[in-house]
Amino acid sequence: MDISLVIPAYNEEASIGLCLDTAIENSHGKFKEIIVVNNASTDKTVEVASRYPGVRVVTEMRKGTGHARQTGAEHASGEILAYIDADALIPEGWVEYIERTFERDPKVVFLSGAYRYHRHESGRYPAWLLDAIWWFTPPVYWIVGYIGNAGNCAMRADALKKIGGHDRALAFYGDDTDLARRFHTVGKTLWRMRFNNYSSARRFDQEGLAQMCLKYMINYWWPVLFHRPYTPGHHDLKRS
What we know:
This is Glycosyltransferase 2-like domain-containing protein. This protein is α/β, with parallel strands linked by helices. The protein has helices at residues 16-27, 45-50, 65-75, 94-104, 127-133, 137-144, 157-162, 175-183, 202-207, 209-226, and strands spanning 3-9, 31-38, 55-59, 80-84, 108-112, 115-119, 152-156, 188-191, 197-200. Helix 2 (45-50) links the parallel strand 2 (31-38) and strand 3. The radius of gyration is 16 Å and the shape is globular. The termini are far apart.
């Protein structure tokens, strides 16, 4: 099974190196390709990512996760497209979990799971608290039938084309719910709490736990009910 790893990156010079280190080390050569999508970075993201043999860097100058993810998909050649964020760390067994899931059930078109947190810039919140937040998601999945985390997911490339690709109009919030909702119309979508990667807690640290939980909750239910995100853009946490 050919798996392409796509990593959108905007001003991630401080994170992309460790992200690629773990992706290469813990995938044991199982990725067909690793694509870093430079999303209009103004720092040394491209320079750092280009140092890695076998890693391909493509550029998308239109900022936003919808643009970056779709550009990555258009450059990828794998049967399965896997996505992580540029501050994420892939654990051992992550790639194998994707392989088993899609090989066992041809009806599965989309797999996603929760984050765990590896970095707490301000130390405002304990890891157990941030990890525990995700346990609200299984009941939502059981009720609605789909839920997604675009920074920790995998999908069949042909199914992505069938649903029209990533929505380039979505800048950040709601893109994962929109994707899961549309995949749900063409096949089986899975949410698995044991399918994790490790993400930075920087957005919680900088914007606050209560505010972020409220934003994520609203921007899950709004696309479910109205097929569009509540929050049109996102606060830019990174400056070069």
